[in-house]
Amino acid sequence: MLLYFLIPWMFLILLPWLPQAKTRPLFIAMALSDTLQAIFGLSLGQSFHGSWWPSLGLNIALAVTPFSQPLLWLNGIVLLSIACTNQSPSRDSVFWLSLAYSGVSLAFLSRNLLLYFLGFEIAVLPFYLLVRKEGGTDRRAAALYFLAFSAIAGMFLLAATLTLVVHHITTFDSHVVPRTLQFSVYGLLLVMWAIKTPLWPFHLWLPRTHGEASTPVSMYLSGVALKVAPFGFLSFSSMLAPAIHHASSLLALWGALTVLLGSLLALGQTDLKQTVAQSSIASMGYVLIALSFGTSLGNQAAILIMIGHGLASPLLFLVTSRIYDLIGSRQIQDMTGLYQKSPALVSWLTVGAFAYMGIPGLALFPGEFGVVMVALQRDPVILYLIIPAMLFMAATWLRVLARVHFGHLTRSTSNVSSRTGSVWSAAWLGIPLILIGIAPIWWTHIWNWGGLK
Amino acid sequence: MTAWIVLGMVPIVLMVFELLEVPKALSLGTLAAGLAILMVLFSQPHAVLPMYEHLLAPHQAIVIYQELVLGTALGLTGVLAPHQDRLASTLLMMATAGGVAAVSTNNWLMLFLGIETVNVGLYGLAGHWSWTRIGDEALIKYFILGSLFTAAEVAGIGLIGGIHGTLTIGPSTTGHSVLIAGLTLMFSALLFKMGSFPFHLWAPDTYEGTAWPATTVIATLPKIVAGSVLIHLTTSGVFNALPHLTQGLETIAVGTMIVGSLGAWRQRRLKRMLAYAAIAQVGYILLPLSSRHMGAASVYLLSYALTSIAVFGAASALSGSANPTRLDLVGVLDTGGRWFAATLIVALAGFAGFPFTLGMAAKLYSIEAVMHDSPVLWLTALLVTGFTFLYYFRWIYPFFAQSPKTDDSTVSPGINTSQLFALLIVGLGIWSYPLAWLTQNFL
């Protein structure tokens, strides 16, 4: 397990001394070896404990749980796809991205509250520099938005964590949290989840950041970094069961509202990257609905959506950036007839769009189906919000697909013919997306969830 | 006793060196060796002559503050070596001797003498390194305001001594209004030296006006001395006679954080940003004092000392006599000054409290100390901490910005001791044993 952390850390230490030309091969090597380490080196139940700052309640407690394992795999695969996609990465960007990667890994593995917070912060702060450095013309404001929202969310998480720590509750494994404490902690955490997941109306930073960020940053941010906060919900859920139970209908309603508004916002976009970003808000709304009830089916559905979304959204961001390379625009109206120019690219776009629409056979379907099942059992009212949302989401993506498949390409394409290699790097994300969608039951067996409940 | 005699002898030796006009390196070496020997001597258990015993505070934590002051001076010696001639060495040593006396004493008069010796050394250094009229103006401002608070100290000591009938520092027994007036004066003088709200107004102008080496000293030594004295006096109950002391300290701490971070946000020049950032940092030293938590305040003080020496040492090496804007820092990582830039990045991250730096642990100590207090207090403190990320990262960013290659940089390549402090910030942030040992055995 230590090797899993050591690989990125050694890479971070070595990186400033390496020549620029060696950055890309070593980044790929690091991502590949760490992904292999995550898949074959980390097995369920593995744990590591060490004392670090006992007087602060901050100790090293790492463990692989059934829910963290798939997310660790996702983490590796998304990083690997970014490493393969990025043709000429700058050294700074690779450094900050790897730092964020190690933070995310720490957050997924941590069983100590403060260690989770540290991972959370390491996964957040480098993104300010990443967004600020490379991206669209308005990236300055976008980076500021991101940092302001994230810093506030992080401090609410720290407030909740410290409240527990001063009551001598330092690990996620502790069961007894006094009732009076539960509700204040839950309230503080709710603010963090609302901002970081995000829930409407705290989502403002997300489309702005994605609109301006460069492709690798968008891919990693929406693919994995966005999952740290909802994963915290799962970790905290065993300690805060009564509070979660009390607030479940409210949170489910809030999540459903986010799903509906996210879908509507996505429908209203003319920019493909913004469409992907707004659709992410809807997907994360599903995650919070699934989590809000605290049932085992709900938790499993939440992880499945996170995995599905973690594969589909980087795939779509990747495809968007390739389309931009090809036609010099991200506007959907400029993409008419793109299929004639680049069938492979449009095929991957179709896979991603189908996943977002919740087509069976792709990874988002089992999760969204699970959400509907849970909602049907616990709170059927929110289905009145979810069903229209699904229709809007389908409409959003059908509109995009109709544009790219039919008609004649009017816009002059760039002379750079689509680099086939970079198109096929989408396979890193697309193939797992299909594999998980075809047979979710196999995967849940591998992750030892004891079958879908 | 040896330690104290050596402490008195080193400035005298340095003064003699000045008269003899020995090589600069010799006086600098003597200063550094003297400080190192003093650190060893003060760490050993030592007895003083019975006639002086009542002047020294009986706490065992005193040794930490003595070492902290001496260590800060040693760090300053290392960082400022290129600027230090014989006179500067003497003045720095004098200020240090005053600081050691101030943090160890149990007597109001000795405390006054100690703090004033620090001040005299500082005025001298600021004047010695002042090359422009703006520098002189900053010095005058610092001097006049400093003298005003010196007067407040004298008045406060007079009132306290008059009520207690003794100049020995001890817990207050009565709630006499004259005593309250005296303690208030003393308390505000210490807050002024730390650059804390509502007495922070001198700091930005003085920092901006003085030359980098003088700013480095002003930002560290007097704040460490005043901070140590304030921690020591507050936790031993000297200020208990002040009504609403806890609420007062809470307000001052949170106010200092808010004023400092709002001021630092959107500053255009590095030095002014650092001045306001340092004000915000002082808030975290004061915060645990509101629940009389000596350990947390001292750990933060230590972290502040290490980080600010690294920040100012690196910034001064990077900017020479200029006061850079963010644009001036673009591309420095590609020039010979890359090690200073790296130090500045690490140190700013340490100030912000990035994970795996000492600043992170110190901030956790500081805020955990008040977690049993009202939620308004700690939630405000936390949100301000979140806000501080905005300006620290705003200043870290330019180093990574893409830039056209410029080769007209005036940065002299190389390294100085500020890199050592950057390593300490990260090292102590990861290896917790030294701080854990310190807090368990002394604080």
Task: Characterize this entry briefly.
With 453 residues, chain A is mainly alpha-helical.
What would you say this structure looks like, in words?
- Chain B: This is NADH:quinone oxidoreductase/Mrp antiporter transmembrane domain-containing protein.
- Chain B: Keywords: Membrane, Transmembrane, Transmembrane helix.
- Chain A is mainly alpha-helical and 453 residues long.
- Helix content of chain A is 71%, strand content 3%.
- In chain A, a hairpin with a 4-residue loop joins β1 and β2.
- Chain A starts with a helix and ends in a 7-residue tail after the last helix.
- The relative contact order of chain A is 0.09.
- Helices cover 72% and strands 0% of the residues of chain B.
- Chain B contains 18 helices and no strands.
- In chain B, α1 packs antiparallel against α5 and α11 packs parallel to α16.
- The interface between A and B is medium-sized, with 35 and 31 residues.
Key words describing this protein structure:
A: 453 residues; mainly alpha; two-stranded antiparallel sheet; 2 strands; globular; B: mainly alpha
Give the SSE layout.
The complex is a heterodimer of chains A (453) and B (443).
Chain A (H helix, E strand, L loop, with lengths): L1 H13 L8 H19 L5 E7 L4 E6 L4 H18 L5 H19 L3 H21 L5 H27 L13 H18 L8 H8 L2 H9 L4 H10 L3 H27 L4 H21 L3 H32 L10 H4 L1 H15 L6 H15 L4 H23 L14 H5 L2 H12 L1 H7 L7
Helix pairs in contact in A: 1-2, 1-4, 2-3, 3-4, 3-9, 3-13, 4-5, 5-6, 6-7, 6-8, 8-12, 9-13, 11-12, 11-17, 12-13, 12-16, 12-17, 13-15, 13-16, 13-19, 15-17, 15-19
Chain B lengths: L1 H19 L3 H20 L6 H4 L8 H19 L5 H19 L3 H21 L4 H32 L12 H18 L7 H8 L2 H24 L9 H20 L5 H17 L7 H26 L18 H15 L5 H11 L6 H22 L21 H13 L2 H9 L2
Helix pairs in contact in B: 1-2, 1-5, 2-4, 2-5, 4-5, 4-10, 4-13, 5-6, 5-10, 6-7, 6-10, 7-8, 7-9, 8-10, 9-12, 10-13, 11-12, 11-16, 12-13, 13-14, 13-15, 13-17, 14-16, 14-17, 15-17
